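Objective 1b: paired records.
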Amino acid sequence: MGGFDYIPAQNERSIDAEAGLVWDATGGPFNNRIYLVYTDETVNENNDTEIYVRTSTDDGGTWTAPVRVNDDPLGPIRSQFLPYIVLDRTTGTVAVGFHDCRNDNGVPGPGGTNTIPNDDAEYYGTFSTDGGLTWAPNRRLSGGFSNATDSGNGVDYGDYVGLDAHAGKLYTVWADNANCDGTNPNGTLHAFDLYTNTLMLPGSITVNSAVSRKTHGAAGNFDIAMPLTGSSGVECRTTGGTNDYTLVVTFSGNVTVTGTPQAQVTSGTGCVGSDGVCTGNVTVSGAVVTVPLTNIANAQVINVRINGVNGAADAPAADFNIPMGILIGDTSANRIVNATDVSQTKSRVGQPVDTTNFRSDVNTSGTLNASDVAIVKDKVGTSLP
C-alpha cells in the first residue's frame, strides 16, 4: 500500500501503510527480534485492508513472511487501518492496536451508524507471546461505532493513536465519537473525544526451559533441551513400540492450562497422548507442564502447542509453541546420522550412563551396549531439515 489511499472510513485524510517498528531488548527468548507492523490492501483500491506483522532476527537483513493480525473473516470487504505496535518490556509480549470496520455491514444499529457498509470503525487490540508467530483472538476495546465523516474535522481519525504496554497491560487511547458512556460533550456522532481502555496481556509468565525427558533404567532421568528459537533440539532416543516421548516445560511461575485440548501437535506426525492413544491432556504441577507424546515419527521436527496457559486469574490465557526435533541415533546432535554417531556409540560401550554419554544409550536401557550400536547403524543416512 502506498500513501494516500482513500477508504470509506477515512475518505478525507486517507490512510497509508502506517508502518511501525519495535525491537525486543528484554533479554528474553525473543531478544533482538524486530517487529514490523503495517497495513496492506488485498487488491488495489478494493478497500479490503489488513494488518500484518513481519519479524527479523538479523537486524533487518531478512524478514519472515507476513502474519495476518486481524482475525475477521476473509470474505467481506472490511477495512483495518492505523495499526500501532508496542512491546511490554517487562514480559516480552508484543501488542497491536488498530481501527477496524469488521462489524459494519450497513445495517443501522447492530451493523453500523448508517446504511453504508465499511465506513464505521471500532478500536481493537491483540497480542503475541510467541514472537509474532501467532496472535491472540482480537478484542474490541471501544464501546461502539465511530464515524469519521460525522466528526466534521476534515482529517478524520488522522493518524493519531496512543499505545503503550507495561507489566501485563496494553494501554490504548484513540479518537471516538460513539459516545458509548454518554460523556462526550458534543454527543453521539459529532466531534471526536478521546477514549481509552486497557487490554490485559499475559503477565510475567514465560517459558524458562523445555526438555525431552527419558528414563534410562537405573541410571535415572536425562533431559535434552528443546530451545524455543533457532534450530530445534534433537531427541535421538527411542523406546520403540508406539514411539512415546515426554516434553517437560517449565514456566517462570505457577500456571494452569485451560485450553481444549490442553496441548496438540500442530505440525509433524504424532499426537499428545501415550501408548498410541491421542488424548490432548497434560499434567500440571506448579510451574511445570508435562506433555506426553505418542505415535511420533522419526526424522522430523514437530511443533507442540500448549493451549491456554495462564499464570494469573486476571490475565488472558496464552498459547506456547515448543519445537522438537526427533532423529533416532543422532548421538552427536548434528542433525544427521552417520559414521560419526556409530563410532561415538561404539567408543562408549560398557561405560556407565551419565550426563556425558546418555545420548548414546539410544534405547534408554540404562546400559551402553551393542544394542545401541545396532540402532544407530540402522538409522545411518537419516537426517533433519
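Objective 1b, second protein:
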Amino acid sequence: MTLLVVALGIALVQACKEAGSPCACVNKPHDHKYYLTEFDGSTCSCGQCHEYGEYFAADRQRFGCGTHLHVCRNGKCVKLRVTDYGPSCFVERDAGRAVLDASPATCKELTGGSSCGWSDHFSITVTEAEDPAVDGRPCGPFNVTDEELADLIENGRKIEERKRMQAVNTTASLPSSSIRVHRAPKYDVVVPEFMYTESELAELRTNPHVQWHSPAPDNTPIPHWASLYGQGQGLNGSKVSITRSHVIKRANDWVEKKKPYCQCNSDCCGTCDMCHEGNPPYRCDCSGFVSHSWELPGGLVTQTLHTVGHYIEKKHLKKGDVMLYAAEHVVIFNGWTSDAETHYHAIQEPGCHSSLPPYAVANIEPYPMSWNPSDFKPFRYNNIVDG
C-alpha cells in the first residue's frame, strides 16, 4: 500500500512539473477523485469570489473561469462555480493526489466540519456540470444515490467532450464570416484551430493583468548575429530571406508536433527539444517559436525581436508577420478570417497557464489580441518576402 501511494505521488509530481513550477496543475484525474481543501475567497482571479454566492472553487487552470462543477462525497453533492486559480503544485505534491480548493460553505456541506486540509484526506468526486440556466439546478447542496452519482460523472464526461469539440470546431461562427480549418500554403496537413469560449474572452477582455507566461528579463543580451540579420546579412555574408509560406510551414510543424511551452527554466510545461538547439537556444516559448519559424540562427526574446524587424500598419499585415507585445508575448499572423479584418488566424506558443492548450497551437484571435489589446502591434521580420 505504501509503495502504491508513493508511486501515485511520483506520477503526480511529474504531471505538475510538466505544468511549470511554480505552477498549478492542469492534469485531470481519470477517476475524477480529488482531495478537498478550502480557502476563504478573499480574492479571486476570475472576479469577485462571492459574486455568484457562497459555493465556489479554484482550479480555473483545469476547468476555466465560470465553469460549474459537481463536487460529491458520501451521498452529498455541491454544485459550485470556478472563480480562482490554484492550488499550487507543491500542495498536490504533498497530498499525493489532485486537490480541489473550495469555499468554506462547500467544506461544511460535504464534511460537516469548519475546515478542510489536504492532510484530512477528504476524498471527493469532481465532474463538470451544466450552467444553472441549462439544467435548472442552482449552485448549492443536494443529495445523490450511487446511480445518480454515476449519471453525474457520465454527464460530466459528455460536457467535457462537447467543449473539446467546440474548441476545435472550425466552422463555429464569428462576426462577419465563418471560420474554417486552414491549410498552410504548400503544406498538406490540416491544422485545427482552437476557439475561445465566450466566458474566456470576457475574462481576457476585462482582466488588464493577464500574463500567460513569465516575461524574459529586461537585461537579456542581444546575440552577436542579430544586427547582421536585421540588415539582411547572414553569418557568412550572404543575403538572408525567407518566404511567407515557409514561415507558416515551419510554424505549423510545431503545431502538428504539439511542442509544449517551455522557457527551458522553471516556466515549462513539457519536454522541449529546443533547449540546446540554436545560438542562443531557441526554447519552446513564444519568441523562440517565432525565431525558429523565421529561421534565425537562435532564439530572440520579445524584448529583442526589434533587432531583426520593424513595426508596420494593420493594413500591411501579411502571413508570417507577427502581433508583438514587446514586454511579454508574440503571435504569428496567418491571415484574416474575413474581409472585416476583426479576427485573424494566429499561431503561437501560449504558455502553461493560458486559456489555450499549453503547447503550440493555431487559433482565432480578435484583432489586435484577446488580452491587453492596446499593447499588441503589427510587426514584420526585415527579411521576409512574399511567396
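The domain at 2-168 is CATH 2.40.40.10 (Barwin-like endoglucanases). The chain has a mean pLDDT of 84.
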